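We modelled the chain as a single entity of 700 amino acids. Its sequence is:
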Amino acid sequence: MWGSMLAFARIMLKDGLALQIAVFSAATVFVLNGVNRSTRSVLFYILRTAGLTAALFITYMICGGIFMYIRSNASLWLSVFLFLCVSLYAGFFCKYDWRVKLLVCSEMLASYVTLTELGGAFGRVVETLWEWESWVIRSLSICMIIVLALLMRRFHIGRFDEIPVRGAIFTFALNVLCVWIVQLGQLMSSVAFNFPVYITVTHLLLYAIEILLYFMFYAICDERADRMQQQKEKELIAANRELIEISEKTFSDMRQLRHDMKNHLACMTLMIENGDLVSLKNYFADLMKEMNPSLTFIDCGNKNISAILNVKKAKAKAQGYTLESDIIIPEEMPFQDTDMCSILSNILDNAVEAMDKYGFSGGSIWLRMRCNGDYLCITVRNPLPPDADSEKILRLFTTKSDKSLHGLGTKIVKKLAAKYNGVAVFDITEGHFEAKVMLDLKYDLRGGGNEKMTKIFTVAVCDDEVGVLMTVTGALEKIFEQHGVRADIEVFRSSESFEKRLGQKHFDVVFLDIDMPGTDGIEFGKKLRASGESIEIVYISGREDRVFEAFSSRPFGFIRKGNFLQDSSDIIPQLIALHEGGANDAFIDIRTNTSIASIKVSELMYIESIKDYQYFYLVGKKEPIRIRSTMDKLEKQLVEYGFIRIHKGYIASYAHIRRIDDDCVTLVDDKQLPVSRRKTMEVRIKYLELAGSSGKNMLN
């Protein structure tokens, strides 16, 4: 049998079959993975092509050798094993949806088998008429698959967000039928040998049909995508139109309020002059009830998103519900307006539909939009009755009468999330349905270019010296920018002016001078802590003798004015990590080789496993802490603190993760850790869940 395999391998080399396999492998890898001009991309393309060629050659050699040994026709089984090899390659090394993989693999297989037989039949014709070597013609004919690969890459169905399943399966079945017809003709060897012209024409027609099938399916997907895009544009236009109507009504209400205000003021002035404070109090209470609540707007800084949300808020209010929102997002984001309209419209409409279905009159829908690392995280939450069928709800079936036009909302949201290198998750927790969406804020920056600021940090600087304010503000902006954060900085020359502003706006951190006229920084810090204000305090001072005194207000850090750049460069990455993950003052005890150490969870960035030891890397520490344990045990211990197992040898803190790519995780300090490709989606989903849980105080 081994002799038969080696003999078949020699036949493949002699007759040009090995060259045909190499060309087919190169074309298939090109369609499934693509290649650009970078050295890394070309190198990977060559390695993948070589690997697939070797796998197919060995498969052909084994299969052909076995059937040569038992003296049976192996052509049909060769096609089956060819498809299995290509499918396995696509499954492990291709990022496209299974429908895309199915179509591409079947199209390439059908074309390869048809062109192989076409080359053989046409080669016999040419050999008879002009006495050319038939294997030359076969090799030239198989090169036609390169043309097909170029066309398929140019018109790739993987670019479409929605691919009909039935259409994909039907096209696959027709490609299989074409392969079966080719193999049927090969089994009738006498016909193929005696009528080569007839076989040539037949295979040429089959090849044309296979190409036509692919491009017809592409045209269907393209038309469907155009219809969906038009629908999204109509939704956005309608949202802006409705916002204009809401604005006009609000301005009308404001004009009416302004007109009535003079009369109200006159009445209240008269009551004050008469000393009738009880009537004044009652009059004022009645006036507050009459104030039109429609004067409240959602203004998140992004015009189109504000338009969509205000329309949805008005619709929810019209149906007896309220839309509560907590939104802090950049003014500019890389997402198409129509895509954001589709995502927000679908998840909010689903929430309103659920409220209406279950009769939550007067209830609330909660919306949260925040930037976490390099991602925009959206969470929409609506209540469910205790007896709701959770399993049925999570199947996400539509309850609308026209199922042909509805029921695609959640699928569209998932597709759009995937389009922007993110993920969408739908779940039921604590009696509420939650829709969570994560989108990559740097999606359009792949391949180079300056990075946009994706996170916003609200910062206050309080110092009585103008020169210090100017210097500190400029330096802080640059340091935050280096870590991909846009700092929204406001300056104050006294603690009193800052306290007044604090009642109007939330700040993430205040950089506070210690020596100031009036209430000094330490006393004001104590006052902030006593009030329960959730703000981090960083003292800036040249008075190092008052450091220990400052500890009474539990500051985040202390920056020396004489060493400002170094100290602030150490503290700001820790601030960013704490801001993203939420305050986490918990400690965990770990046993080292010599003692037991307590580690603050918020300072632990990641754990690396090397052989039998685990290394704990902490913020601001150059040397890691080494222990001897197992990653499984540590994962169980740390999961409740927001740690994610990204690789068999790495556990990373959610709070310190800035972005998640297909092959690595980037931390806030730009350190890159490997991530298992099979775990990439799992890591993103876990990251999204943690991002959503960090806002549950608002949602509950």
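As a brief sanity check on the tokenised model: The chain has 23 helices and 20 strands. The CA atoms of residues 408 and 523 lie 58 Å apart.
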